[in-house]
Hints:
3 strands; single chain; RNA-binding; 54 residues; Translational regulator CsrA; mRNA 5'-UTR binding
Amino acid sequence: MLVLGRKPEEYVMIGDNIKVKVVKAENGSLRLAIDAPKDVTITRGEVWENKNKI
Length: 54
């Protein structure tokens, strides 16, 4: 796992076509903007965990 620190308006690229940008950070909470191709599924962690429980 890679752990990065980013400030608002900074971003990381995943491959050549997925951009994850911090758009707001306050009180320990973040808002992220994710720009990815339409064929890439994006699922919130809690939804993914509930779906994949055994």
